[in-house]
Design brief:
The protein has 325 residues and is an all-alpha fold. It has 15 helices and two strands. It has two domains: 226 residues, no CATH class; 76 residues, Arc Repressor Mutant, subunit A.
């Protein structure tokens, strides 16, 4: 499976290249440190907006930024190890939010490929081997098998578990063309996505086993990875954001996340939407709130007088959204 950068939006490409510049710098290549830092800060800020302003990594990234400014390549490498798989997992969730099951499975596979590549590179760096270069163009199954044998030879106890988890994800792919078979069942994408957190945990355990100083922030990044799924939001990229309606954001993001558990005025809703990067008019937001408060499918209750309305959830979100990624 190949990762085609040309298919990414401009914003996604900036995220990807910022992370790759971080890796290049950590391995001694000449890269403008200030440019790297700007790229990482932009990436983290975009991820925060995608998640509706929740669970920001900013406070945890700041110490790494300071170390990188002082020329600390180990800090750059560790930050890359933490962040690079997140880029791929965010796309897994994005494709699931669009019900693009086949794409979600493909991104899960690319997530695994990044995990394997990172670990093989780190084994090479630690033990002066040349495994990654020799296996770089090999099939994923061969690279995964080689990684397992290398970790087992060094007595990493989770080697077999990590191997099995990624093998499961890869086995869920359907390598035949889209016209040969029906699209994969949603269940396959759900199973594939659900394994990614376990892979990420074992991957970090392996890096720590290989003597990387990552233990202090291990729980923070695992919690952030987990929260990506728990937010159950529709992650939007590039041109897709323009196609999102006000009603969709109010129902599938704000209501779903419990924003209306207490009464919200129109101004409260607008402030939150602008914080998330949306610029809907007051009239459009007001109309959408009214629609979501009327009829048998209403999820909100409107209270108060004209121009002073407040909107409250009519039912707990978990009663409406019973499907968990």
């Amino acid at each position: 499976m190949s990762f085609d950068i040309s298919k990414l939006s401009d914003k996604e490409r900036r995220h990807y290249y910022a992370l790759e510049a971080l890796l290049a710098y950590s391995y001694g290549e000449f890269v403008d440190k200030e440019k790297i830092i700007r790229g990482i800060v932009e990436t983290i800020d975009d991820w925060k907006r995608m998640m509706g302003g929740r669970d920001s990594l900013e406070p945890h990234i700041a110490p790494y930024i300071r170390k990188i400014q002082n020329g600390d390549k180990d800090a750059a490498r560790n930050l890359y190890f933490f962040l690079s798989p997140l880029f791929f997992y965010i796309h897994v969730l994005y494709e699931i939010s669009r019900s693009e099951w086949r794409n979600a499975i493909s991104w899960s596979g690319m997530f695994c490929e990044r995990i394997v590549n990172n670990l093989l590179r780190e084994i090479d760096r630690k033990y002066s081997t040349d495994i990654f270069r020799k296996f770089e163009k090999s099939k994923f199954e061969n690279k995964l098998g080689k990684l397992k044998s290398e970790l087992e030879a060094r007595q990493f106890k989770l080697a077999n578990e990590l191997f099995n988890l990624m093998e499961i994800i890869y086995s869920l792919r359907d390598t035949r063309g889209p016209h040969d078979v029906p699209p994969p069942e949603p269940l396959r994408a759900q199973i594939s996505a659900s394994q990614c957190l376990l892979v990420y945990i074992d991957y970090l355990e392996a890096l720590i086993f290989l003597k990387n100083d990552m233990l202090k922030d291990y729980k923070t990044f695992v919690a952030f990875f987990s929260s990506l799924t728990e937010t159950k939001i529709s992650l939007t990229f590039g041109e897709e954001r323009r196609k999102i309606t006000v009603e969709h954001v109010l129902k599938n993001v704000l209501y779903r996340e419990g924003f209306f558990s207490k009464g919200r005025k129109l101004s409260d809703v607008q402030s939150k939407l602008k914080e998330m990067g949306y610029n809907f008019t007051d009239a459009a937001v007001s109309l959408a709130l009214r629609k979501l408060s009327k009829g048998k499918n209403a999820i909100l209750t409107r209270k108060g007088k004209r121009k002073k309305f407040t909107y409250h959830e009519r039912y707990p979100p978990e009663e409406i959204f019973t499907t968990v990624i």
